[in-house]
């Protein structure tokens, strides 16, 4: 769900300053803990010359990996990687997911995933997660698992890894996966937790997903194999039946172990072999079930093979339509030519999607549409076409989209279109090569797991780039046309339409619309030539900074321009090809008047897409072709934020794009109208489940019903005008101080020159008026709760929040860090009380927010989804935890379980420039942010139970928690809620 507080991270006006601070200890020297091999590290079953994942292919072996296969059938892949330093990433993938279940076992693969963490040969009940937390692995972030239809994967990312800790962790994980304790008591403990998770997933989204799956994969096992299972099969699970599933599929022949770490590959391979070599399966190997193939209905017209179709009526949901051309999934020979062909198809798909977007921008009958080829769960090879119509006329939207596709199937694209698509792919592949040296070990481990799942090999980024460029002569109109035709070739067509009301339309109408001949439309073809940023009008008169000085921390330099713009520069070569530009400006939420909430709400979709200067969206796309540019936008409590991830050679264009947005914003009304249509289509979905209601109302309630934070009603959205949007944002874009932070792999002098031509050239800013600059963020007064909201969805779903106000401001940064730890301790206790002991809720959590741009607005709050009857129990549990933390504080072990993961995450994150950008954002105008950075590490690492108790006494005992609940509307549920 959305952030529950739009926490400020922007600037506060202060006089210029120069501070000289000690460099934080964690930044002075990089961590160094690479584990070298010894004579005893001699893996017996490694395959340096014949890796199992490359057999039968001509794809060049990525020699940074070492592969091996044990006599018992366990396959492994290991790799030395020091990103982050001193970390190990372990993956144990079992080639069995929900699609392997019998009808009576539905949900067992996922249930077993829970039980593996419950108890095992080396861990007593509930001991595994706390053990790894004490080692520095955060639950959900470093220690996790996932179940898909085809695979169950267990994950551990362990910081501060030594030879001993890697070996011990692999040993413990081996015991968890191979020898879990599957007792009646443990089944009885975990089934309610899984049912709670199932209840959280219930509602319209799951009903739509299940109906869609049943339609698209009709006749195949995937059609009714949702990993969450059914209530009947889960409640019927016994230790004996779950154990049988484990024995059948959790076998060495079905296991792949991936270990990536800051160690010699021989060390890692020897550890895997030592811990997995003795695993033996019982009895003969069970063959994988037949997943089935998509088959056209008997008697279907081969010329127009529309098969299964379904209209899904789900009140409150956005109207949408998807049709698919289905082909059987076939085990491919993953060779170079196969990948070349895939790349041609990807380019063809990118051109079609570009045309669909152009058509939508020009006012077509659909809000959005896209096509994509996907190979799903080793079940189908499908091309899926997703359409969001505008209004009720879905037939027109379908016809428009099919018209664009029909044109792409009958006429070759222009070379201009091809070149634009190819340039974007080339940039992406070059970026992958540049980033490969700093790719995290966890990502590398996940890539192997995914490759095993889809039955394909892996390739280095250099190989991908080489293969892509090797087919440059094949990117011709004729060959791309052929690839487009291949993409839409198939003998089975299936479709679903989601509608909030029946409208008189049924499956026969949908089938008939799909069987109508498509009329090719040429209006979306791209014919415009490329646009070069260097040829665009200047932002203004260039101006060099009038002051350049060290910030006083790290090697950050602070620049001041005559127009008042401040800049922070930080250069480093440890992240080649990676640069982040972040612009903070203006007043954020403080800058809006009470009647302008609608223009804030529409801005993320409308503001960026409305263009800059004389360039509209399509012009900007052409200008960005062949470049790595970004344009993220956020509204914080005290500032607006532009952010883009770019590279050194595109930095000047990135700065131009942001500066021109402030100096000469475009006001194309089309994106504004499109944004209105989008939010109107989705508004009714807010009331269909507890999450939707919280997304709509929680910010508003926690901000004392401040109208700026209220989600606009459909009537307010309808009444909003493009002129009103322009008037509001013209003011907001022009006021308040600007800070530009450029961190990463930069040439400093070239960056200063680019800043002089862009942000140094913008007009002086309008100052914030005192009433805006000092506008507080208010928390509801004592006695204003409890608040009871209702939703019109499932009768067994509810959500509850309890919140306490804290404070804000950069002077309280140390206090905010203690609150972070307190919230995590609170969360562990709430998880233990509601999930582990009672099975009442799957994922309760507690978080703390602390705005930096004002002295108010912070809060600590807990949120949970659960059965309506258990809402009082949640409040009782939360209040009891709050009272006990204030009276007694946490135990030393509780504190260690949250401090160690935070401490080690700081050490790991500090190797990247975005860590320092996040810490120093706003420091050109607010000295506290840099000053308190020097204590960041110790504020967490040296925290004591007494400090936690004092913080709890100050904030959790000062007043009762504000209670907000979202309960089912009994009348709505009786009338049609499910």
From TrEMBL:
Hydrolase as UniProt keyword: yes
Domain Peptidase M16 N-terminal: 88-224
Family, similarity comment: Belongs to the peptidase M16 family.
One of the GO biological process terms: proteolysis
GO molecular function, one term: metallopeptidase activity
Listed name of the protein: Insulinase family protein
Domain Peptidase M16 C-terminal, residue spans: 238-424, 721-899
UniProt keywords, alphabetically: Hydrolase, Metalloprotease, Protease, Signal, Zinc
Organism, as annotated: Aurantiacibacter rhizosphaerae
Signal peptide: 1-27
SUPFAM superfamilies the UniProt entry points to: LuxS/MPP-like metallohydrolase (SSF63411)
A Pfam family that the UniProt record links to this protein: Peptidase_M16_C
